[in-house]
Write a sequence for this structure.
């Protein structure tokens, strides 16, 4: 198979640096929330804020890319994110919980842009390289899994208020990301194809392949976000495990989200996307079983690793299937709808995680995720994508 073009590697390296914003917020958002929030039930609101911001920004970001091109949109949003990272640092410094949540919601605009990297990579390659391009870009998340929590810890005491320095360091990562993304080049498409309005969205969403792709990615993200958001609160705040152990579990989880991308293209070629996504649902089920069985560090670690693997198989599976539902000139509106549905559902999951884990406890919270896994399972078994 021919090598991947420069665009894919630029996007991979850029994602490695800037997706650190997500892993940083997942790691410290609930901890800063616990310090600043007026109520324990609001402790995970900062984590939910970045996800809500992502969900709300998905459609506007896609429309900006359609109007101005991917490159200009990427660079403009990264520049904006440098300022927002500093705003987050300032909000901690002045002990403003709601300003902190607002700044994280604005960082969600950056995350919405980063989530378009996989589509930009897929557009840069031939159809036979789509699974490899999508999985390669997501490999950048492995580095992000370490960089985000690492700058969180190193920046915690860098300035007077805990974790203020962490977001200052994040601003520097966005600076480097801006430099890297300046090497990205827009992909040219046929003028006739570009000018054609394409099919109405109502016709596109009637396709079974569209719903299989969206439901697998959507429910996979919702379950992953729900459990992941609640983990630092349950593990560190409620069970009293150390910050280092909590960091290790979150880092391991995020590595497990992206490390399988080394072989997912190979898995798709060998067993097909259907079996890979079914394996992802099985990984989620085992994850819930392990997490339910105890509160030791090993239980958290094992369950969060499987949570990451399950997410990877469902998310990449859905991402690989989605282009089968649209033509090139329809891509922005379909991608925008796909992203809004995925991250809107994820936002609901993240918003409710803190309340549910405090109200029902860790075990009962886990049980509530089981019906969500039945939805993609039913879609896969009914439609049987190739």
């Amino acid at each position: 198979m021919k090598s991947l073009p420069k665009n894919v590697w630029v996007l991979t390296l850029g994602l490695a640096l800037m997706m650190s914003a997500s892993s940083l917020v997942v790691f410290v958002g609930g901890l800063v929330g616990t310090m600043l929030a007026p109520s324990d039930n609001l402790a995970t609101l900062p984590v939910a804020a970045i996800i809500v911001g992502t969900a709300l920004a998905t459609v506007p970001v896609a429309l900006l890319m359609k109007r101005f091109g991917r490159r200009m949109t990427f660079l403009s949003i990264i520049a904006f994110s440098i300022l927002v990272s500093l705003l987050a640092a300032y909000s901690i410094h002045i002990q403003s919980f709601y300003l902190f949540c607002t700044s994280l919601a604005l960082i969600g605009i950056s995350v919405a842009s980063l989530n378009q990297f996989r589509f930009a990579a897929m557009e840069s390659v031939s159809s036979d390289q789509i699974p490899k391009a999508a999985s390669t870009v997501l490999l950048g998340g492995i580095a992000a899994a370490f960089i985000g929590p690492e700058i969180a810890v190193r920046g915690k005491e860098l300035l007077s208020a805990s974790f203020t320095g962490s977001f200052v360091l994040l601003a520097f990562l966005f600076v480097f990301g801006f430099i890297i993304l300046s090497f990205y080049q827009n992909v040219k498409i046929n003028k006739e194809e570009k000018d054609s309005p394409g099919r109405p969205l109502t016709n596109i969403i009637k396709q079974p392949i569209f719903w299989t792709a969206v439901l697998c990615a959507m429910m996979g993200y919702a379950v992953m976000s729900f459990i992941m958001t609640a983990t630092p609160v349950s593990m560190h705040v409620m069970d009293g495990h150390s910050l280092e152990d909590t960091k290790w579990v979150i880092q391991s989880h995020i590595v497990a989200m992206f490390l399988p991308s080394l072989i997912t293209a190979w898995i798709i070629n060998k067993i097909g996307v259907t079996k890979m996504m079914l394996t992802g649902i099985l990984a989620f089920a085992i994850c819930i079983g392990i997490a339910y069985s105890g509160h030791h560090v090993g239980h958290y670690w094992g369950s969060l690793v499987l949570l990451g693997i399950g997410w990877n198989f469902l998310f990449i599976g859905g991402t690989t299937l989605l282009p089968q539902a649209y033509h090139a000139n329809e891509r922005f509106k379909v991608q925008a709808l796909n992203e809004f549905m995925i991250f809107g559902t994820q936002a609901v999951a993240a918003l409710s995680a803190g309340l549910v884990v405090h109200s029902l406890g860790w075990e009962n919270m886990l049980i509530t995720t089981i019906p969500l896994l039945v939805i993609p399972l039913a879609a896969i078994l009914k439609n049987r994508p190739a």
